Automatic annotation (TrEMBL):
Keywords: DNA-binding, Transcription, Transcription regulation. Gene3D superfamilies: Periplasmic binding protein-like II (3.40.190.10), Winged helix-like DNA-binding domain superfamily/Winged helix DNA-binding domain (1.10.10.10). Belongs to the LysR transcriptional regulatory family. This is LysR substrate-binding domain-containing protein. Residues 2-59 form the HTH lysR-type domain. InterPro entries: LysR_HTH_N (IPR000847), LysR_subst-bd (IPR005119), WH-like_DNA-bd_sf (IPR036388), WH_DNA-bd_sf (IPR036390).
Amino acid sequence: MLDVRRLRLLRELAHHGTIAAVAEALAFSPSAVSQQLSVLEREAGVPLLERTGRRVALTPAGRNLVRHTEAVLELLERADAELAHARRGLAGPLRIGAFPSAVRALVPAALAELSSRHPELEPMVSEVDPAAVAGALRAGELDVALVHEYDLVPGEPEDGIALTGPVFAEPLYLAARSAGALAGHRDSSWIVSPPGTLCHAMVQRVCQSAGFGPRVRHRVDDFAAQLALVAAGQGVALVPHLGTDRCPPGVVLTRLPLYRRTRTAFRAGSAAHPAVAAFSAALHSAVPAELRSA
């Protein structure tokens, strides 16, 4: 009989590509991961891995086993959801991931609503960039998370991860010291989020669509800080609606015909889990009416 815990390791290896990366993602030692995968190969009776330098590739049998593993894990999530429905009331921890502007603008109201309806539930919030959400969900570090995508940077599907439809959509703004079109800032200095984030990719794509590449001066992940730098004459920035609530004097916001859309993400099979469903309902109630209709 194949061990589900070892199958999880193989699944993570398919996503990360190296033993070291799997060990870091799951807080194991590399030797422990390697040992457990060797045991899984013996259980399977066929080679599952091919080592090429530091990277490890899956054999055809290994890839097929990962495909079956995704289905098995989804069924286990559904079983856990059914058991949760059989219990009386919601209790215990619910690990929630969210990006910073949502943590500030929406999550407090959602948690207040959640606590009023389910006082025994213990929500635990962590700031997580959407790019890191899938790995955190698969590793069990999160149960549900808010992720976003932009019109020019659509979200990529992830094995083992399910998404709701957009919970809300918010417009993007060009933040500058004076009003003007995006194309007029070809030679301006730009304030962007750090590389590797969706927000950084968004600025690159939006500027490219206007026919130029941004001349990046500052890399700052907090939208309030970006706006403060704009006010100080340090450049221009692109900021979504939730990031404009602390806009300082001297900054002009020009609305663009582009949107950022937020969804909830969770492990495939867990959509019906009552705690996940309760948080989703509380989040919907916390979204301002003007964003729900955007």
